[in-house]
């Protein structure tokens, strides 16, 4: 038993946590590979040279940020750090306000209606409309 956080998830947390971390790592590798094949940057705040809308990007406009969130949730479950759960909401807020909005503005400037069409059919974090 931890002196800082109560044991909540135990063995189930280990299984789910490791699974989410694995999925997150695979998502990052897959999204980075797609962006590399499309010859565009994976580095935030750099200007994109192409708009990737297929594969993983047809399910999420931000699969790398989604994978970061999955890895964070996985680590919280695996480490049974229930008191760290509010960090997930803080992470999502920071990513949306400090990175995603700027990136979407860059994509709008670079690709205009093509970005708007993609954004209309693909959710920011996960899912199709």
Compact overview of the structure:
The protein is mainly alpha-helical. It contains four helices and no strands.
Can you give a write-up of this model?
The chain is an all-alpha fold and 129 residues long. It has one domain. It is 61% helix and 0% strand. The chain has helices at residues 10-37, 63-78, 86-111, 113-121. α1 runs antiparallel to α2, α2 packs antiparallel against α3 (86-111) and α3 runs antiparallel to α4 (113-121). The longest helix has 28 residues, at 10-37. The protein is elongated, with a radius of gyration of 17 Å. The N and C termini lie far apart (44 Å). The mean pLDDT is 93.
Keywords:
4 helices, elongated, about 0% strand, about 130 residues, mainly alpha
User: What count of structural domains?
Assistant: 1
Query: How many DSSP helices?
Result: 4
Query: What percentage of amino acids are in beta strands?
Result: under 5%
The secondary structure category is mainly alpha
Average pLDDT, all residues: 93
Order of helices and strands: HHHH
Between the first and last Cα atoms, what is the distance in angstroms? 44 Å
Largest sheet: none
Total DSSP E strands? 0
| Low-confidence sequence ranges | none
Q: Level of helix content?
A: 55-70%
User: Taking Cα atoms only, what radius of gyration do you get, to the nearest Å?
Assistant: 17 Å
Q: Tell me, what's the shape?
A: elongated
């Amino acid at each position: 038993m931890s002196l800082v956080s109560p044991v909540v998830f135990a063995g189930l947390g280990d299984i789910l946590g490791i699974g989410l971390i694995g999925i997150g790592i695979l998502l990052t590798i897959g999204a980075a590979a797609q962006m590399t094949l499309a010859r565009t940057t994976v580095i935030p705040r750099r200007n994109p040279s192409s708009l990737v809308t297929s594969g993983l990007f047809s399910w999420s406009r931000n699969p790398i940020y989604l994978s970061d969130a999955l890895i964070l949730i996985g680590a919280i479950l695996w480490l049974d750090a229930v008191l760290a759960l509010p960090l997930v909401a803080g992470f999502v807020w920071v990513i949306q306000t400090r990175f995603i909005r700027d990136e979407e503005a860059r994509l709008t400037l670079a690709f205009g209606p093509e970005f708007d069409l993609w954004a209309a059919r693909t959710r920011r974090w996960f899912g199709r409309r």
